[in-house]
Amino acid sequence: MSEPLIAAFWLWLTGLVLALARATPLARWLLALGAAAGVWGAAISLIQGAAALTLPLALAGETVRLHYSPEALWLLGFGLIPAGLAVALCTPIRPGRPAWLVGAALSLLGALGIFGLQDVYSFLIAWELMSLGGAVMILSEHTSLTAGRGTLFMLALLEVGAVAILLALLLLSQHAGGVGFDGFVAARHDLSPGARIAIGLLALFGFGAKLGLLPFYEWFPGAYGNGSGASGAVMSGVVLNAAFFGLSRTLVDWLPSGGGSYALGIIVTAVAVLSSILAALYAFQQDDWRRLLSFSTAENAAIAVTSLGATLLFRADGQNALAGLAWTVATLHISGHALAKGGMFLSADGVYAAGGSYRLAQRGWLRTTSFIFGLGALFAAMSLAAMPPQIGFVTEWFTFQTVFQGFHLATIAGRLTLALAGAGLALTAAVAFATFIKAFGIGLLGDGHKPEAPHVGRGYDSVVLILGLAVLAAAVGMPIWLRGLQTANLAQFGADSAQQMTTGWLLVPLTDTFAFISPSLLVIVMPLLAILPLLLLARGRRYAVRRARIWYGGMREDPQRSATTSLTFSNAMRTFYSFIYRPTLDTAREHRAVAYFIRKLEFGHDVADVFGPTLFAPVRRAVWRLAGRLRALQSGDLNFYLGLIGLLLIVILALSLR
User: Fold this and answer.
1) How far apart are CA 583 and CA 125, in angstroms?
2) What does the DSSP 8-state code read for residue 455?
3) At 559, which helix (H) or strand (E)?
4) Is 520 among the domain residues?
5) Domain of 623?
6) How far apart are CA 324 and CA 550, in angstroms?
7) Alpha carbon 453 to chain centroid distance?
8) Total domains present in the chain
9) CA atoms of 207 and 209, how far apart (whole Å)
């Protein structure tokens, strides 16, 4: 374990203590400095290798060790870049509250443990710390009833997922004869096919609760929508990467490629593709920055898990090179997503800090703010919309090329699964493209005809530009960066798929005879191609531009009322997919003394959740009914309590006398 990673731990721990002591400015900069040290440590360890570190600590007789594999370092480094910048800016909702920094520190420390800890006990503690940190961040920003419900809903589902993870780890521990992760790897071939499927499904359920796989993506808008973009950047960056690492580690490292893996791969792929489609569809309907970006987070996590499902299919079929390709693509996608999503979340914070609202509306931000803010936000939005030459385009192109390789599989079930996955991902990509046209076009580019609109702060200008350029650099430098995953490919699949994904400056799916792209060359060619339209534009200036007003029903045009809104932009899709959305429209009228004259008219619109009414609402009602029945335990009746104690003694005696 490199010294910068150790330094990151101590900086975060010190920042946590200082935040609890309300030394907010110093705590904030220590946490940000720790994130920078973590990025540097991950990069150095990828190059030089990372040795295991044994801590002078034992839990239940198990020595606590830290060891960071290449894929852990990769995901950690990419996730810490937006998280560190978000901490440096802090939350714009309540910037002086130390509780937010406490939550950020807990999330960072928990994620550091998830990536490196090597036993069940400490891993579960780190997982709970990470979940608790997210809740503390959100609740420190809003203490309303709505925020409390959204956060409690998040914690409830994450705890259900934590129980599933606990059961999966207990099953692995039973077969391995210990709680160390090294034993899981050594004993994985002793697992029966049924046990492999059961453990895989438990892991998919448990880690999927944080990744936003169905049905768990429904907690995302309620939780993210009550926090700031800074909280979203931490949760969609290093925290999401840690959850993906846990799922990948379970499915690929701890489960063998034998019986049961094929069926598990089909299930993982199907769940992930359906999750990506639903999350993308619901993201498109949102009119709040945070809610839109939260659904997009679930969508991108599902795309990465789709590649993880393809990994299981190829490995079960003996196609180790293709399995390595699919696994590498999944890791690349979730890593690039952290950079782009952090840029968009912090763009939303910049809008909120300047305008006081996260609502998507045409207010002409790019006309009143600096060029560098718009450039950084544009690069991040292009990546999430999978537009070249950004990292999102590269990883989604690789994802499609991976599922197109399904014809190599021996069974019709596997080939059909990946073919349908490709169709589902195509729909997801199309909706995501429209979603970020809406987010950037309406939320930033739209002309609000308000010259007095405030300027986005310089701190957000710089940070958004850094993340936007990082998104571009990750794509352009991919032929170089991919070398960091060579060791992981060789260790897990026996094939250097990462090396075979590049040919010079070309990116290829193992061979350049199938397909290729080159973002490195695109950044040179695209500006050259732009010369032609620029020349045509310059030539066209000789002719006068004639402007005509739009038809506005015979009345004087009102630019504000005729502007495209978030609702009108997405209404066609809402109508076409009404069988999924089940949209609702509510109109409330408040009259004066005479009923004919309306005093106030309120219009509301929403889309119905898929799983909320049919799954979560019945469970919630059952819990309330059970709580009502158990209320008798708090009656205060001494005779009732004595009766319970007497009954407990009888049970104990009966068990001891058997």
Assistant:
1) 41
2) P
3) helix 559-562
4) no
5) 612-656
6) 55
7) 32
8) 2
9) 5
Residue pair 475/387 in contact by the 8 Å Cβ criterion: no
| Short-list 351, 221, 338, CA closest to 278 | 221
Mean pLDDT across 586-608: 78
CB burial of residue 549 (10 Å; 0-12, 13-18, 19+):
exposed
**Terminal Cα distance for the chain, rounded:** 53
CA count, 13 A, side-chain hemisphere, 575 = 6
| pLDDT at residue 369, rounded to an integer | 85
Q: How far apart are CA 603 and CA 210, in angstroms?
A: 34
Chain centroid to CA 339: how far?
11
Measured between alpha carbons, how far is 101 from 503 in angstroms, rounded to an integer?
45
2 close to 50: Cβ distance less than 8 angstroms: yes
Q: Which of 101-105, 434-438, 451-455, 529-533 has the lowest mean pLDDT?
A: 451-455
**Which helix (DSSP H) or strand (DSSP E) does residue 33 occupy?**
helix 24-48
Q: Cα(34)–Cα(55) distance, rounded to whole angstroms? A: 20
Q: Nearest 5°: phi and psi at 400? A: -65, -45
Q: Could you give the count of Cα atoms lying within 13 Å of 617 in the half-sphere of its Cβ?
A: 7
Instruction: Note the pLDDT of residue 412.
Output: 95
Is 640 part of a structural domain of the chain? yes
559 within a domain of the structure (yes/no): no
Cβ contact 256:196 at 8 Å = yes
For helices 391-404 and 371-384, the axis angle rounded to 10 degrees is 10
- Looking up tokens 């992760």 gives 181
Query: For the purposes of burial, counting CB atoms within 10 Å of the CB of 472, is it exposed (0-12), middle (13-18) or buried (19 or more)?
Result: buried
Element (H or E) spanning 382, and its range?
helix 371-384
Tokens 């939320």 belong to residue: 443
* 389 upstream amide cis, omega within 30 of 0: yes
- Pairing state of beta strands 598-606 and 584-591? antiparallel
Cα–Cα distance between 496 and 492 in angstroms, integer? 10
Cα(517)–Cα(398) distance, integer angstroms: 10
**pLDDT tens per residue across span 15-49:** 999 999 999 999 999 999 999 999 999 999 988 88
pLDDT tens string 245-300: 999 999 999 998 877 889 999 999 999 999 999 999 999 999 999 999 999 999 99
Q: Where are the alpha helices (DSSP H) in 53-211?
A: 70-89, 98-116, 120-141, 145-176, 181-186, 193-211
Query: Which range is least confidently modeled, 87-91, 326-330, 541-545?
Result: 541-545
Say yes or no to pLDDT of 461 above 60: yes
3-state secondary structure of 447: coil
Question: Does a structural domain hold residue 456?
Answer: no
Residue burial 250-287, b: 16+ Cβ < 10 Å; e: rest: bbbebbbbeebbbbbbbbbbbbbbebbbbbbbbbbbbb
Does position 564 have pLDDT exceeding 90, yes or no?
no
Residue range 469-478, pLDDT digits in tens:
999 999 999 9
At residue 362, the 3 state secondary structure works out as coil
- DSSP, res 410: S
Structure tokens, 552: 């506005």
If you average pLDDT over every residue of the chain, what do you get?
90
SS3 243: helix
Nearest Cα residue to 281 out of 571, 577, 569: 577
Residue type, 24: T
CB-CB contact of 349 with 228 (8 Å): yes
Q: Output the six-digit token pair for 383.
A: 């990546």
CA separation for the pair 71, 489 (Å, rounded):
9
